[in-house]
Amino acid sequence: MSTIPYLKTTTTGLYKYRRRLPKDLEGFFNSKELIRSLGNNEIEATTKALSITSVLNEAIELTKLSSIPKSVIFDLLSDKLQLKSTTVKPKPQDKSKLSYLSKLYIEQSNVSVLEHSKRIYFLQSLLPSLLEVLFKKNDLDINSLSYEKILMIRKLLVKMPNMNYGNFKTMNLTSLISRLHKNTLVIPDKHLVSTETVNKNLKRIKSILIFAQDLGTYTNSIPKSITIQSKETSSRDYKAILTDEELEKLLLNTPLDIRYIFEVLYFTGMRRSELYKCKVIKVDGVLCFDLRSPSSKLKTKSSYRTIPVHNKLFYRIDEFNIIVNNLKPERLTKNFTRIAKNVLEDTECKSLYSLRHTFATNLVAKGVQPEIVSELMGHAHSTMTMSRYVKGYPLIVLKEAIDKLKFINF
Predict the structure, then answer these.
(1) Domain 239-402, architecture per CATH
(2) Hey, which residues does 19 pair with through a beta bridge?
(3) Do the beta carbons of residue 202 and residue 154 sit within 8 Å?
(4) Cα(399)–Cα(397) distance, integer angstroms
């Protein structure tokens, strides 16, 4: 049997090249598999097999680049592998289409992993669904995306729910938007997407227009202002905090390891994802959760910080990394939701994230300065002056603030 990949030998001594094609290449061959007869000569068959493999590998790499038209890949395969005459050469991709420009824009963007995923979701999922509902087609010529159409998109965006609530995440996106457009579904204010999220998506549309203009594709003027004013209240205001009694009930009914992690979240204000990116060290004599590793991908620059360890957490602090690494993030969220439903009377808008909101709310209630709360939370300082001149409070000050949170008795 030949050791050359994809080169097979039949019982009659005939050499054949046999390889399952990736989906992106199936259309070029009108088949899911490429089979070529290579004759009886082993040396010639080996040479041909290596050549075919090289061509296919090159074609596969080209399919990963949205800037490469399919016609170029077709010409490569046709020239090197003599495609059958029944194979239809694909039409060159229309470079003025929003879908094409979105792929190119995403591919060439140098942003955080989080922002990258949000751009993909909005530009390749949410926006096409909005276009389908509003204009009966999920793709447009970039020059037809007028200011009036953007305003129509904006009108629907502000009706969208926060997709993390209830069953919204499992609903068909186009169907959901259609119901919102026809006003057969109205989202309660407390479940609406935040103004901040709406404006970020509108800015993504504007960024696409600027990108297309730089390419010479978009020939209209860029709208100066398409964002909306912040509401007096937003969905963020409805992320309920936990009372002391509710927190005590929750912890009393939680398994020990998970309970400890819930305590860590309450006494630090960390995001769930940050649990897996921090280590416990001493800094200037203060025991801290350290989130400053350059290799960690955090939400913002302000997220890179140190959080002093509350005295309440000392009893298992040496086991912290072991405990958290044995718990999948989804398990923490599911346990919180399940236990909250069982022991709390009111679970409306209460989630694992409520521990972070409770941390911030209780610190403010204890008289801690908003700038200190912001630093502990990993937010930018609340004023431009603070952001510009304050480079971090002394750890002893942060420790004093953290220790104002009281113990939970059980």
Answers:
(1) Orthogonal Bundle (1.10)
(2) 34
(3) yes
(4) 5
CA angle 259, 263, 268 (to 5 degrees): 150
For residue 161, count other CB atoms closer than 10 A to its CB.
20
pLDDT tens digits, residue range 312-336?
999 999 999 999 999 999 999 999 9
Q: What is the pLDDT of residue 85?
A: 52
CB atoms within 10 A of CB 219: 10
3-state SS track over 213-262:
HHCCCCCCCCCCCCCCCCCCCCHHHHCCCCCHHHHHHHHHCCCHHHHHHH
Token digits of residue 393: 């409070």
Note whether 67 and 217 are within 8 A (CB): no
Task: Give the pLDDT of residue 390.
Answer: 44
d(CA 262, CA 271): 11
Retrieve residue 23's tokens.
């989906």
Instruction: Say which range, 168-172, 203-207, 300-304, 314-318, has the weakest mean pLDDT.
Output: 168-172
Angle, helices 113-121 vs 98-108, to 10°: value is 170
Answer whether 83's CB lies under 8 Å from 28's CB.
Answer: yes
384 has a pLDDT exceeding 50: no
Write the burial class of residue 355 (CB in 10 Å: 0-12 exposed, 13-18 middle, 19+ buried): buried
pLDDT digits (tens, 9 = 90+) for 224-261: 788 887 654 444 444 578 888 899 999 999 999 999 99
* Residue 375: φ, ψ to 5°: -65, -40
Rounded distance between C-alpha atoms, residue 146 and residue 206, angstroms: 11
Per domain, the residue ranges of the chain are 7-81, 98-235, 239-402
Average pLDDT over residues 173-182: 92
Looking up tokens 């993504």 gives: 204
Report the pLDDT averaged over residues 339-365.
87
d(CA 249, CA 231): 34
- The one-letter amino acid at 279: K
Task: Name which of 125, 278, 330 is nearest 117 in CA terms.
Answer: 125
d(CA 320, CA 298): 20
